[in-house]
Amino acid sequence: MLLKGGTLMHLHPPALARADLRVEGDTVVARAARLTPKPGEAVEDCRGRLVLPGLVCAHTHMYSALSRGMPAPASAPKSFPDMLGRVWWRLDQALTDEAIYYSAMVGAVEAVKAGTTTIIDHHASPDAIPGSLDIIREAFGVVGVRGVLCYEVTDRGGMRRRDAGLAENDRFLTATRADTQFRGLVGAHASFTLRESSLAALGDLARYHRAGIHIHVAEATDDEERTRRAHGAGVVDRLERHGLLNDRAVLAHGVHLAERDIARVTAAGAWLVHNPRSNMNNAVGHAPVETFGERAALGTDGWPADMLAELRFAHFREREHLGPRRAYPAAALLQGGQDLASEIFGAPFGSLMPGSAADLVVCDYVPPTPLTAANLAGHLVAGVQPETFTGVMAAGRWVCRDGVPLNIDVDAVYCRARQLAATLWRRMRG
Ligand SMILES: [Zn+2]
Predict the structure, then answer these.
(1) pTM for this structure?
(2) Residue 279 C-alpha to ligand 1 middle, in angstroms?
(3) Which residues, other chains included, contact 11 with Cβ-Cβ below 8 Å and sequence gap of 6+?
């Protein structure tokens, strides 16, 4: 396929260039000012429209898709762990195979409509563990989005479930070792729900597969406090002790990491994922994202995988926190997600250069003011909306056109999702 006359965007450092792109399979194979169509080649005339590299959601939970509008607990949770126990751990425990499938479908539909072509998911379903990652993979495959999946290992459901979670990660990592659309990470809930032997098993698994851990870190104050009480060491100490603090690690949140621990995390090259909407919604505090360094990305942590919406929250929150005199390049967090995907898949994402992933968004955004590389971030924060996306391509295939996902019957999926959500909510109360 040939995409002619697009204005190709690079997010960070920001760049714009008018060029043609040739896509073969799931890869960009050529880029030049003018490419001539080959006989029989499909041609997409971009007519100067912006072409963004496909966006990456670096941390989320697809199973949250069926929680929208869910009744709140009878009395307000007293703390973040109280909310986990009374809302989120009840939700994941009520999940069935079919609910996992439809939540992943709904989440993937919302993602591609918003130009998100890779989802790094963190899954839990304590009563439906074996094969759960394959169910998400199947749903993502139907919609056409790429996925980096893991099962969140925890001690909270007992040793049998812990071991089933480890086995699910092991199985999926083996199955996707050379896959171009799906990869695995070693999933873990959080330090405060993992005993020493569990972290040791996670470390063994990560070493065996040369994969990173994907874990919540210092989301609320409780993670560090409970970890210190139970183990006499901090969250970062424990990750380091078990060989899990390295440049493949994906650490979500870091809201309450001490300055010294952030320095250790960044020195190790671990990724930190900022989730501003979730942090605000859970009132866990403000992540010191301005200190996260270059290996930082943006996640949605259960909110729809609309990365431009998340970007706006990141931007406004940092502006309020830092004041107008310190510029914080929130758009760099989007590039961070693409760089993280590049490392996981072992191929460039986010560059739209020959050899890179053919994941992109054609955007009919008409700027009312001059648009240059220098002010690209301003247009992303204040102007570009998913409603202007005319085409979203993932792994070399169009997956959404003018806001309509191409590969599924969205009405049928949403109809079944509503039925399953109602059943899920009843099961949670039961
Ligand atoms: Zn999370």
Answers:
(1) 0.97
(2) 10
(3) 52, 53, 331, 332, 334, 335, 338, 350, 376, 380
